[in-house]
Protein 1
Amino acid sequence: MIWRIIATGGALSFLVTGFSVLGNPNCISADLGGGRVVGVTCRQDSYGSFSGSAAGLILCFAGIALLGFIYRQFIGEYFAGTKQPKIEYSLTPTSEKVANDYSAKKKLEEKIVDDLVMAKVCYSCGIPAEELWHLECKACGETTFVHKKIPKSVEAANPEFKTCPMCAEEIKFAAKKCRYCQHMLDN
């Protein structure tokens, strides 16, 4: 968000400089240059590298191009006629597909607890980031996140592993026989 503000200031400075060069009647030719900042030197003779109008138009075009790049997502949504997608709070990337099936939706609702936790949620698709330090959404690749309270998930009903009662080794939950001590498990 802060980068958009800073970049917008830079783009607007290009536009202001371009319009000031275009509005200057004494600027017959101009030299573009500078180090970290683009500078324009207006000249009253024709020995500059660009004509005054060409230099002004170049700067205006650069400002408009930067603004277009900064706000490309919003411009695309405006011309496509789409609005910001409704964020559905789910903990799985396939939540839209699951929501269409009523029985699957009921099962998903049973896994959600009333407790809310603060999470980093993708601005575009609404999928929570797995870790707070992730800079990119795993589902859509977007880099803009918002912090919101979302439902806390419940642990799965069937754990992936269980402990063997004879040797205390960790084995898969669906196992009928321990692979370490060969003890038959009653499931």
Protein 2
Amino acid sequence: MRSGILPSDLPRWLTDATAFCTELTHRTNGKTSAVLIGTPKTIRFEDYEVRPVAPQRSSEAIIGKYDWTDKANFGRVVKSETAKGPDFAGRYAIIEWSCGSWCTNSVIADVLNGKMYDTPFGGVVGCRAITGDLPTMQRSANSSLLIVRGSLEMSFNNSPSEGPCGIFYFRWTAARLRLIGCDIPKAN
């Protein structure tokens, strides 16, 4: 959470699990979409199968913490990483960089044309009880499913703050992530 912001200054949706899932659903799927609380019926990568357009990359694309601040350098780094092949939804690479100790920011880049897409959250911070030893963003080159474990950093009034810790299930469709499940334990 950004320093200087009091808990009383936060919108309700950042501190309440149901309200957070509602806000995330509306931001990813549209204001009239049904709120997707809980785990989807299927969370197996093979149930969202796609065919990769190139050989899968051998490792995640992780760039330096400050590489994203220089737009020209960032473009070169992303281009270099996308040349190594997809690791998500058949033709995309998720490019990650650290935003702190256990925090990851990312962009989704098309390995064929280099076009970049922002995620619907600013970053994700790992939470020991939810993330454990798993990656905060789990994906496969041959699947359109993205599983995000941790606390999503969301913005309000141009100010980012972390929401409740949970597991968030997204599916890549029509060049964007759409929420298909929002599972936040009651203790959050």
